[in-house]
Amino acid sequence: MSTEAVFLSTEEEQEIVNAIGLAEKETSGEIRVHIEKSTSIAPFDRAMEVFHVLKMDETELKNGVLFYLATDSRSFVICGDKGINDLVPDDFWESTKEIIIADFKKGDFKLGLINGIIKAGEQLKQFFPWQENDTNELSNEISKG
Fold it and tell me: What's the rounded Cα separation, in Å, for the pair 45 and 111?
């Protein structure tokens, strides 16, 4: 990915990465966050492009979740792979997004992402519990474009 977006401090980013690690200790699901300044295409379409570039569609159980943000465009998308979408309740992504947006409206982007990550981890645990042989298939680091 290209130009790095400045949106969160290094410390805030690390707290988000830590939240991903904690959420993934309870599930075999894989969670990623991608932040960029803007998108020239529909945010969902861009999120799906990023999902593919990050190889999130290559997890063994098809259980990756991407939190995509385009900061200048004020766009936010959560998308999951087929394995998740086939199992979670119909309102799962929307209810998770509402939790995040509540914090975003207060200007607390770090807390919004952490709350969303924790909620996603709790839901993933129900359908994709952590197994003893589980490996972390994807980086927990925030990607930027």
Answer: 25
The count of other CB atoms within 10 Å of the CB of residue 60 is 11
CA–CA gap between residue 17 and residue 141 (Å, rounded)? 6
Residue 6 is predicted with a pLDDT of 53
Dist CA 73 CA 45 (whole Å): 14
In this prediction, residue 7 has a pLDDT band, given cuts at 50, 70 and 90, of confident
The residue behind tokens 């952590």 is: 130
- Distance in angstroms (rounded) separating the CA atoms of residues 35 and 133: 31
Q: Both tokens of residue 134?
A: 């589980």
| Lookup: tokens for 122 | 């709790």
Residue 79's closest CA among 92, 95, 93?
93
Sign, CA torsion 59/29/90/70:
negative
What is the per-residue pLDDT for 60?
92
What's the whole-model pTM score? 0.91
